[in-house]
Amino acid sequence: MRLYVGFITYGKSTSKYLSYFLPSLKASISQEVKIVVVDNSDEEVNENSIYIKNNFPEIDLSWAGKNLGFAKAFNKMIRRSINDGARYFLALNPDMIFEPNFIEAMVRVMESDKKIGAVAPKILKWDFTNNRKTDQIDSLGLSLTREHRFFDEHQGEPDNPGLNTVHEVFGFTGAAALLNLAALEDVAYQEKSPLAPPCRGGESTEYFDELMFMYKEDCDLSYRLRLAGWKIVLAPQALAYHNRAVAAKGKTNLQIALNRRHKSRLVKKWSFLNQWILLLKLKNFPFSFGVKLATGWYQIKSLLFVSLFEPFLLKELVKLWRLRPEIKKRRERLRLDIEIKELEKFMYDI
């Protein structure tokens, strides 16, 4: 099986999409594909499992027994795909629909260059309430600032023909990405000594960082792929539509602060903690003085904002302190196979 497709389900938050998502996904499949699902729902029998078993019995569905979060659930599916001899893994959110050539277009770009580690599709906004496709951009991959802030490229802008060129982007969004399993094995984290030989698809192998329950795992894995010399490429002919509840508007400090009003406390906690985990993993890398200064200054401003307006997030720093030994292990396993200036070419100022 050359290609695995995987997604996560969780209670009513995903079940409402399945009658749109799965027929659309199946219509985009033109080759032999294995579809796997990890159900993070609280109960084994739920709206997701009932719909999948009744309508798509060929899909391999496993109940996690608890909510594993994003990283652990996807790592389970990725390990399985590797052990089954797959070459690629397509990670998807179920709140999406696709054009018929979606998978074919992504695979075609992936196979154009053996150094491509991930392919990002063009994702436009899906108006789920009215079941309407729009021309508003949801994501054209991830972009990165010199302050180490991550954004979905061109989010909120109207689509236009000038955005239909295959090109490199800094990273991929976890909503939809075709992952080269050879690249994932190359940058995987394993608990054992870095001098020990790699264990292909081993149970302790982490592709997405399992210190991150949810949010920023895509930023982290994109970064690790880039540091190890792998490319991440946008395939604009691979078109998907995503029902993102709240899209970010603007990138200035004020606009970011205003956008935060729409985020739940839990999402803010995950995002805040995981951003710091990522930064601590990168702290010893030889970034230019300008990048170090911009990153440090932004974190000072961020902590000041949190102290004044979101003090509940300061408790996450206690968790961060306790995670220091695990973060250190991961930092020691990070590779730098490129000149850091090559990575900084993807960074921009706001």
TrEMBL record:
Keywords: Glycosyltransferase, Transferase. GO terms for molecular function: glycosyltransferase activity. Signal peptide: none annotated. Residues 8-145, 165-305 form the Glycosyltransferase 2-like domain. Pfam families: Glyco_trans_2_3, Glycos_transf_2. PANTHER family: GALACTOFURANOSYLTRANSFERASE GLFT2, RHAMNOSYLTRANSFERASE WBBL. Belongs to the glycosyltransferase 2 family. This is Glycosyltransferase 2-like domain-containing protein.
